[in-house]
Amino acid sequence: MFVDLPLPQLREYRPERAEPADFDGFWRRTLAEARAHDLAPEFTPFPTGLTVAEVFDVTFAGFGGHPIKGWLLLPRHATAPVPCVVEYQGYGGGRGLPVDWLLWPSFGYAVLAMDSRGQGAGGWRRGDTADPYPGTGPQTPGVMTSGIHDPAAYYYRRLYTDAVRAVEAARAHPGIGPVAVGGASQGGAIALAVSALVPDLACALLDVPFMCHIRHATQITPEYPYAELAAYCRAFKDQVERVFETLAYFDGVNFAARARTPALFSVGLQDGVTPPSTVFAAYNHYAGEKDIRVYPYNGHEGGESAHVMERVARAKKALG
User: Fold this and answer.
1) What CATH homologous superfamily does 7-319 map to?
2) Which of 146, 185, 195, 277 is catalytic?
């Protein structure tokens, strides 16, 4: 079933943003703290037998200098620096295995697939990066409420910072040229944040992005992961406003208003996980060049293989 506003209303849906006064300062300080640690990127050759790509096991310093894992796949036999897409993971997933990332090398591009700290045990793609940050307090199962009592302690501060550092790690490799970012769901949310925090990206591929218009999302969908926030607010009734004050620092609509990276969004009109109005809220606030693909009879899976080809076409336009 269609789960939200009619499409003509969605295309005009541009809600007011709840933005902290020190949003920009918060993120400047956060990234400066991270950059005080040596990025120290390591690219260790990883034997796979693949004929299309050369694979490297990647480690770099993310938030707090913590070691973050990833895979870098370079098209085999490339003789000059090649464009790279940095890909971020959906909720609960990790970097998986190199064979999960053959799409971009098949088209002649590199890909750096960043692991998500503390995730990757959700049963669909394994992760290899711990989250050593201490003192996050009580939380609902999952990561949505980890450290939510304080923006400085909140999980997504660490994850978004890791994502910026992943772009820096990709650029540190001599075989990499221009860089784009992409992801779906949580990965789309991360790529949206990075599109605002890193000013000189080639493009952003933002599919059914999560973490947008967050308070509204908790009011119109019972689906997870937003349901984790509702469960936390049921348990801590006196902290509801504090919860959403924290989340305002991580809401995709606030990043969208600052983004100048050319972007391709996608949305499914039957998506109960990231409801269409939350996606359009970010899209309609997005300050850069933008386009969106709408899939009326799809849910959170978005446009599936048909949209994969849309992503490739958009990357080719931006990356050459």
Assistant:
1) Alpha/Beta hydrolase fold, catalytic domain (3.40.50.1820)
2) 185
